[in-house]
Automatic annotation (TrEMBL):
Residues 41-266 form the Solute-binding protein family 3/N-terminal domain. This is Basic amino acid ABC transporter substrate-binding protein. GO terms for cellular component: membrane. Keywords: Signal. Signal peptide: none annotated. The keyword Signal applies. Residues 41-265 form the Ionotropic glutamate receptor C-terminal domain. PANTHER family: ARGININE-BINDING EXTRACELLULAR PROTEIN ARTP (PTHR35936:SF17), MEMBRANE-BOUND LYTIC MUREIN TRANSGLYCOSYLASE F (PTHR35936). One of its GO terms (molecular function) is ligand-gated monoatomic ion channel activity. It comes from the Archaea. The lineage of its organism: Archaea, Methanobacteriati, Methanobacteriota, Stenosarchaea group, Halobacteria.
Length: 266
């Protein structure tokens, strides 16, 4: 379960900045077509490069979010027509523009996003982790130790907001020391290459990178984030259906099975 099989070039050409349609049973972008059996078709959007939630494996989009959303939609009267891939920061615009109908991308529920979109009930919790090179001599134990160092995160994420609000705004880090990336794989590669000294990233994803690459979690920073599926404001019937589907999947064995599958062996 890694992006390791993809070179940076292949990765970029796959993800790029624009949407790539990976699989479409029927070509309905947003708004919903007809599933053939009368069900409404919906299209999901994600941002791969965030293992084990979503990543490309041999060209295929896989991960916990992919399996979980598919299991949840299976419990509803909707049909998942397919997945589209975006950079993380383009997901909310894609949702509001009706290019997609739901976001499954380890997206943290927060007030700022809640002003533009809605979220389902939470399905996973996370804090931020600070990742460093395994063989390096830099072993920070708190955010203030990051002062004066080159730090990276993915554009538009809560990792980036943590750097902004906890380091740059209080004057502990110069803006020029912050490097933002289109995805976290590129950030971690730059860390491995020695171009930056630390990456701020969601803890479960940090654990996955640490298991697959020569990087370590130096420390974690408690943010108490909850991930939810992003839906359009006002799409209340659909949101309710997803919430019902989510609780069914949680009550049965599916949620636990998927957790074991994607987070089990690290
Ligand atoms: N949880 C963080 C956020 O919501 C990071 C999510 C990044 N997700 C991704 N698929 N790249 O901002």
């Amino acid at each position: 379960m890694s992006d390791d099989g993809l070179s940076r070039r292949q990765y970029l050409s796959t993800v790029g900045g624009t949407a790539v349609t990976v699989s479409l049973a029927g070509c309905f972008g947003g708004g919903g077509g007809n599933g053939g059996d009368g069900s409404t078709e919906i299209t999901a959007g994600t941002a791969p490069g965030f293992p084990p939630f979503e990543m490309k494996q041999d060209g295929e989009l896989v991960g916990f979010d992919i399996d979980l959303l598919e299991a949840v939609v299976d419990e509803t009267d909707y049909t998942l027509a397919g997945w589209e891939e975006f950079e993380f920061k383009s997901l909310i615009p894609a949702l509001t523009n009706e290019n997609i109908d739901v976001v499954a991308a380890g997206m943290t529920i927060n007030d700022e996003r809640d002003e533009t979109i809605d979220f389902t009930d939470p399905y996973y919790s996370s804090n931020q982790a600070i990742v460093v090179r395994e063989d390096g001599d830099f072993s920070p134990t708190s955010l203030s130790d990051l002062s004066g160092r080159a730090i990276g995160a993915q554009k538009g994420t809560t990792g980036e907001s943590t750097i902004q609000s906890e380091l740059i705004e209080p004057g502990n880090l110069d803006e020029s020391n912050y490097n933002s990336y289109g995805n976290y794989v590129l950030a971690v590669e730059d860390l491995q290459n020695g171009n930056i000294d630390a990456v701020v990233i969601d803890e479960p994803v940090a654990q996955t990178f640490a298991a697959q690459r020569p990087v370590n979690i130096a420390f974690t920073y408690e943010t108490g984030e909850n991930f939810g599926f992003g839906v359009r404001d006002g799409d209340d019937e659909f949101t309710q259906a997803l919430n019902d589907g989510l609780s069914t999947v949680r009550d049965g064995s599916t949620y636990q099975d998927l957790t074991n599958k994607w987070f089990g062996q690290q």
